Amino acid sequence: MRGIALVLSAVAMGIASIAAADTAYIEPSTFSPSLNQTITVETSFNDDCCVPKYAVRSQSFAVIHPDGTVTEPDRIELLSNSTILEQTVDQTGTTRITTGERLGRKGGEYVLLEGAYFLVNSDDAAPIDVPAGTPILTSQTATVSDTYVTIGAPTWDSGRVPIGRLSLVPAQHPSSVHSGETFTVTILFDGAPLIGQDLLLTRSGQNNRPGDDGVVLVSDETGGVSIPIDHIGTHLIMTRMQAPAPDGAETDIRSYTTSLTFDVRPEVTVTD
Question: What is the pTM for the complete model shown?
Answer without folding.
Answer: 0.88
